[in-house]
């Protein structure tokens, strides 16, 4: 045990002395999270930018309607003309526009539906909130007009009373978690990919020790091959744990991304996956003659499996057959676990997913150990 | 007392027998030369003694204990200086020695003292903060030795410790070997430089095809070949020398050409010098000098194995 700790300490020291290690193990997963934020974070929580065109002149009822829109929550109003409105929407400077046509006030005074047009380049879902609120307000004012039956004094009296009481509206902001879920999913996807590359890099140290002959000296000391490999596995697990904790802490407390999954549960799920990643990297090392071939094998295995399982883009865009193949990959099971946790399932209820991840780790490691032990050549390490 | 005792040692790789029923003993306080051409079986033997390879058959005892039964004891009492440098380039000289010594259980002030002691011993005390990548080949070889001695092993195995280094570093290493020996270490020394072995070693074993074919002091080995003489003929140019025609002469057992010198091994009882010279004159080879050499280790090795040590 003392020797194992001594080996881990030495490996940690020489690893973190290199700047490249900090980049590979911490900066790259963080870059993945930031990339996910850029992809999915644009529409989340931002105010709706609405351009208003008033073609009805300085009519007080029209001005009140415009003020109503201005006072809506999560709406930022810009007064403009119709030509500029289309240009601004096309340029992406505005999300939508509301055109109060000429005769708006006259129409509502008479109890008719006024000429209001809503313009948007992003579809109805973007304007639905403002439209629904405005429809309610205009409907009320038109109802006053209907009740007044063309009597301007009566309309003014009732409208003044309506204005005094204000347009009573209670609104509760419900968080749109769909983007956050997508962002978390993709961030975890990138993290998985970098965890797999990191695990491979670290287990490749076994082959590098072999190449620079230090393994001969290590095995000639009271350290057994088993102790050495186990120390490498523990070292790799420790670094992956640090990588997970660092990424999750930055996601949650610095970038304020709430994954919707308790921190400890997400940490535990990812750590289970890290065991599968270590098992796979040991397997790659066991079947490689040198660090170069291990590196090539790592790229050949990690990159396509991460693509297939949806680490870099949503799996739904892939054909059904490919999605079925992804079921044989540990990354898919971890991402599925995260999705299920986000949709409210408990950690315990996902025992099948978790057991499959442990199964992957055990199967990879056992094959690697078998492969190691079958080799009688001292140059092949064990 | 024997520090190392090897009995009926055999190592097979599938059908290939690398070490064949070898018996060998190394006494306490010896510098023991272990000679063999490439592929003779010496590295395999060393790997088995160092517990890097399992034996197929036979026993190895270190300080009276079977190394298969007491691997930790054996490993703790052996220091290995491998032929290939086994150091971390990204760690300082101090960190290298300290790390390897730590594997033998040394910690704290004891570890620090032993590390400094080992670095001072190989003359790298003032370079302890330097990275090996900035070292010369000789300095790296010395660091390679320091990493093997900090835990004060009883037996040090040095496999070609002077390969590819400058004469100054080589002398330093040879002196270090003598000094270690004077301090009580038993040393097994392998080298392709016969003069090093002849100069350093108190006893020598010659291994060929996995077997010890001769063992003893230099004098004992040389006495084996009293029936052989060696003639050295310095020539002006190597180009015209026809080694095959010389080999066909009566009594000649081996001929080689090194540095414009024809080295001929011949049966001692046959006086064939005249025929040799006549053959060279016939081949129009210009002779500069002729010497009959007393048998040396090189002659012994060549006679016994039919090969040069560097083959």
Automatic annotation (TrEMBL), chain A:
The record's GO CC annotations read: ATP-binding cassette (ABC) transporter complex
> What InterPro entries does the record point to?
ABC-2_transporter_component, ABC2_TM, ABC2_TM_bact-type, ABC_2_transport
Sorted alphabetically, which keywords does the UniProt record give? Answer: Cell membrane, Membrane, Transmembrane, Transmembrane helix, Transport
The chain positions of domain ABC transmembrane type-2 read 151-375
Keyword Ion transport found = no
Stated family: Belongs to the ABC-2 integral membrane protein family.
Task: Identify this protein by name.
Answer: Transport permease protein
From TrEMBL, chain B:
Keyword Glycosyltransferase among record annotations: no
Q: Which Pfam families match?
A: ABC_tran
Presence of keyword ATP-binding = yes
Q: Name one GO molecular function term.
A: ATP binding
Q: Which PROSITE patterns does the entry link to?
A: ABC_TRANSPORTER_1, ABC_TRANSPORTER_2
The superkingdom of the source organism is Bacteria
Which UniProt keywords are listed?
ATP-binding, Nucleotide-binding
Return the protein name. Answer: ABC transporter ATP-binding protein
């Amino acid at each position: 045990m003392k020797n194992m700790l001594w080996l881990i300490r030495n490996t940690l020291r020489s690893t973190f002395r290199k700047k490249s290690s900090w980049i590979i193990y911490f900066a790259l997963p963080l870059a993945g999270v930031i990339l996910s934020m850029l992809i999915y974070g644009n529409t989340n929580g931002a105010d709706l930018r609405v351009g208003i065109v008033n073609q009805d002149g300085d009519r007080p009822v029209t001005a009140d309607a415009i003020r109503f829109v201005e006072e809506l929550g999560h709406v930022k109003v810009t007064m403009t003309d119709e030509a500029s409105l289309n240009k601004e929407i096309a340029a992406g400077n505005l999300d939508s526009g509301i055109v109060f046509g000429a005769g708006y006030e006259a129409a509502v005074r008479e109890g008719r539906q006024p000429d209001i047009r809503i313009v948007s380049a992003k579809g109805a879902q973007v304007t639905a909130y403002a439209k629904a609120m405005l429809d309610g307000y205009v409907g009320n004012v038109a109802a006053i007009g209907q009740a007044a039956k063309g009597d301007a004094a009566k309309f003014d009296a009732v409208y003044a009373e309506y204005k005094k009481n204000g347009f009573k509206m209670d609104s509760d902001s419900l968080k749109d978690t769909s983007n956050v879920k997508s962002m978390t999913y993709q961030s975890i996807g990138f993290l998985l990919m970098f965890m797999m590359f990191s695990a491979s890099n670290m287990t490749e140290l076994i082959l590098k020790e072999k190449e620079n002959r230090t393994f001969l000296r290590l095995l000639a000391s009271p350290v057994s091959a088993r102790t050495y490999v186990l120390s490498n596995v523990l070292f790799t697990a420790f670094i992956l744990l640090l990588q997970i904790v660092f990424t999750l802490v930055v996601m949650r407390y610095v970038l304020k991304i709430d994954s919707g999954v308790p921190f400890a549960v997400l940490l535990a799920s990812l750590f289970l996956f890290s065991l599968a990643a270590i098992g796979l990297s040991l397997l790659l090392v066991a079947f490689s003659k040198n660090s170069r071939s291990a590196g090539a094998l790592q790229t050949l295995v990690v990159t396509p499996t991460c693509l297939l399982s949806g680490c870099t883009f949503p799996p739904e865009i892939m054909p059904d057959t490919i999605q079925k193949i992804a079921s044989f990959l540990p990354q898919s099971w971890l991402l599925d676990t995260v999705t299920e946790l986000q949709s409210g399932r408990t950690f315990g209820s996902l025992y099948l997913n978790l057991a499959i991840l442990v199964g992957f780790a055990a199967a990879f490691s056992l094959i690697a150990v078998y492969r190691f032990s079958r080799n009688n050549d001292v140059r092949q390490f064990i | 007392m024997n520090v190392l005792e090897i009995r009926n040692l055999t190592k097979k790789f599938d059908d290939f027998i690398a070490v064949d029923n070898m018996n060998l003993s190394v006494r306490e306080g010896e510098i023991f030369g272990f000679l063999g051409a490439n592929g003779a079986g010496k590295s395999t033997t060393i790997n088995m003694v160092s517990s890097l390879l399992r034996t197929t058959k036979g026993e190895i005892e270190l300080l009276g204990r079977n190394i298969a039964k007491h691997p930790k004891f054996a490993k703790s009492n052996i220091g290995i200086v491998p032929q290939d440098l086994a150091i971390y380039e990204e760690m300082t000289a101090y960190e290298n020695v300290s790390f390897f010594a730590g594997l033998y259980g040394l910690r704290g002030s004891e570890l620090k003292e032993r590390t400094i002691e080992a670095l001072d011993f190989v003359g790298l005390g003032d370079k302890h903060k330097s990275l090996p990548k900035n070292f010369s080949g000789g300095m790296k070889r010395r660091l390679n030795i320091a990493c093997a001695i900090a835990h004060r092993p009883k037996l040090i195995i040095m496999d070609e410790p002077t390969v590819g280094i400058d004469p100054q570093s080589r002398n330093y290493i040879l002196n270090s070997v003598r000094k270690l020996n004077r301090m009580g270490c038993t040393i097994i020394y392998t080298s392709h430089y016969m003069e090093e072995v002849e100069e350093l070693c108190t006893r020598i074993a010659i291994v060929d095809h996995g077997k010890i074919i001769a063992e003893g002091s230099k004098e004992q080995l040389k006495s084996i070949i009293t029936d052989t003489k060696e003639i050295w003929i310095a020539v002006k140019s190597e180009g015209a020398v026809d080694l095959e025609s010389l080999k066909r002469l009566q009594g000649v057992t081996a001929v080689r050409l090194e540095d414009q010198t024809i080295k001929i091994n011949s049966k001692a009882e046959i006086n064939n010098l005249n025929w040799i010279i006549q053959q060279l004159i016939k081949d129009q080879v210009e002779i500069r000098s002729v010497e009959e050499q007393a048998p040396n280790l090189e002659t012994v090795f060549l006679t016994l194995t039919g090969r040069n040590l560097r083959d």
